[in-house]
Design a protein that fits this description.
145 residues, alpha+beta, Ubiquitin-like (UB roll), five-stranded mixed β-sheet, 5 helices, 5 strands
Length: 145
Amino acid sequence: MDAGSDTSRVALDESAAGDCGGDAGGATTVTVRCTGHVRDTVGTHELEYTFEGRTLRAFLQAFFGDYDVEDLLIAETEAEATTSGWAPSDGDPPGAWAKNPEGEQTRSFARVAINGQFNEHLDGLNTELADGDRVSLLYPFMFCC
């Protein structure tokens, strides 16, 4: 991994202090579904994955240790998490927009979902996971330009 990926890993680790990251709660087994580039790297579209802890943060730390997909999913900066859209914007979109803190956001077009809901609409990386939950790691193939 390059030095840049260490930045996001530090953000994942630092925020874990005091939560249910990998320190408590025992093992959790989830179903992981992968699309696009993540599927290519992992080698399958679905797998059962057991990790120590109960949060999405603990899952991601363990999963990124076993599969080299962190750089595909986690943005290190706000710029990597934002894409320029094709529609003009005044910078104040309608409705409620939730996002994770910098260093815990997904890259443009990549998403992490728990049971069909994007993590930023739940409790971010502190979202509690239970046995049998479905974690989707989404990074579509894009062919353009």
